[in-house]
Amino acid sequence: MNHAWNWDRDNEPGAAVAKPVGANDYSPLRWTVIVVTLLLASSAARSGSLAEDFRNPPPAARPWVYWFFMDGNISREGITADLEAMQRAGIGGVILMEVDVGIPRGPVRFMSEPWRTLFKHAVNEAERLGLEITLNAGPGWTGSGGPWVKPEQSMQHLVASETNVVGGQRFDGILPQPKPRPPFFGPAPKEVEPLRAGF
Which residues contact 61 (CB under 8 A, 6 or more apart)? Predict the structure, then answer.
């Protein structure tokens, strides 16, 4: 094999080493060409096209949704039906929240033994269907409520009153004081007093 040779004087002062032309001669341009070639090759090796990935997104690109347990109105069959429908619709995961939105209270009290059993079922079903699941930090909209939160430290309500006036005239009255709402948390149930003492 014939080689063209250059003298490499960069090793030590005064030393000269012969090496083939181009050996270890990787300029930034050459590295760029190598990297781009490898990226294109790996991209071509992927099974889906951009259009196909848009129609059927990979799991990491699928959207998540809020999933509400409506104040204890939950069942094993309902959980399975909900998650199967979400999976068919292309949903990737759920953020589960137990909420009280003014509907009649269901039979499953939040964090009771039946509630925890149903939550475990939800996690198992999500895993079976390839969905991700996370639980909001607590019941309701505060995200971290509990009996250890003092009413004055809890989520606050902005209240308002209404006064009808006639346009085009000066209003010179006193606006009525809005009726206050009671604090969200009342006395702590006896079974949570040991928890409350730790906070």
Answer: 53, 92
Quickly tell me which residue has 């000269």 as its tokens.
16
Strand 17-20 to 5-8 pairing: antiparallel
Q: How many residues does the chain have?
A: 199
Tens-place pLDDT, residues 62-95: 999 999 998 899 999 999 999 999 999 999 999 9
Structure tokens at 78: 């309902």
d(CA 136, CA 144): 8
**CA-wise closest residue to 100 among 139, 148, 145:** 139
pTM over 0.85: no
Using CA atoms, how far apart are residues 176 and 158, in angstroms rounded to an integer? 15
**Alpha carbons 176 and 199: distance in angstroms, whole number:** 39
